[in-house]
Write a structure and sequence with these properties.
single chain; Rossmann fold; 2 domains; 5-stranded parallel β-sheet; two-stranded antiparallel sheet
Amino acid sequence: MGNYFQFIKRKRIKNFLLLTFTWIIIPLFLVEILMIVFEPYLFKGLYQYDPDLGFRVRPYINGNNQFGFNDRDYPLETEPGKFRLLVVSDSFNWAGGKDRNYTALLEKKFDNYYGQNQVEVINVGYPGTHTGEQLAMLKKYGLQYNPNLVVLGFFVGNDFRDADPERKRIIVNGIYIDINKKDELVILGYPIIGKSRLLMFLQQKYKVYQELQKAKQDSVKLLSNSLVASLHLGSTPIFEREKSPGILSKKAFLQVEKSRLKFCNIKDLLEGKRDENINYIFQSILEMQKLLKSRNIEFVVAIYPDEYQVNDKLLNEIFAQYDDLKRESYNLTCQQEILSNFLEVNSIPYIDMLERFKTEQNNRTLYLLREPHWNSAGNLLAANILFNHLVKDINNFFFGKLLFLQVERLN
């Protein structure tokens, strides 16, 4: 009798395992396969996989152009007599949309100064990239525009920190993940990863939902406090950080800023813990300089500050929130100092926006609420700084063209 019950028990276990395999394991496996094979058809968000870059912005989505840049289409050849410059950067080239981004505002300033369409400012920035990845993007897409000048926008908040020479950021089912370049596996054009795509997708959606709920709660508190203040002051509340709520909760935003600030820990810098990232950026900039020089293209680096460097209130909040941070342990402008010293040694012109942003921040807010990018005032200020610096070189270009035409007429 005992053997019979053991037989029945083993049979039930086998049936359970068989049913589990048939109704759970196999369907999940098929879902994983479908998410690989049908990715180009099911996931048509902002990003898509690119075998060379890891990812790119999908062309002609949300108004962008043929290469996925936040700009209109341009002919690849520059019209004779016109000046063309590219602005290479990351998500800073997307804040404000296509018409109110600093690159578009810069082009309007040139239109007012030189006349319509005499200077073309082409926005060639991809979100989520650092200088090394932007170099690859410039080689593959940007230089097809045949520019006269390239401006590299360097954001000190994360361009050094993210510059892992082994990192390749790829897009899988609309989600970006960072992999080691050596571990990349592509079969029939599809990237293969050692993670469940379905699980990643569900985790990402849940994480976004949670963060949105926290951000909404913080925004309600902010609105309530502003209304109370306006009643006491007898005035209407002023929202200098745009109308939209922050995309991050206050806690999450302070955590992001803390992680960026920690790059400038003086002890870590002296011990060389940042050298690998720094040297990778230096190598990428030198390669960019060499590439552009070989094509007679001028090169300028524009250095964009992080908000904690210009907003004392935010900086104080970070140190108040985290007891493990000691102000005297950090060089708050280490990124600017490291980069500017390197650029000077290598005779690369640069524009450091830090002091202008610090001064103007005293008059008005320049960054979005709990979001690391510029608001409309910040975009306008960046455009003004770039215009005042670049107009001298562009004047020389047009002056040279004028001299050339006069000499031709005399001959």
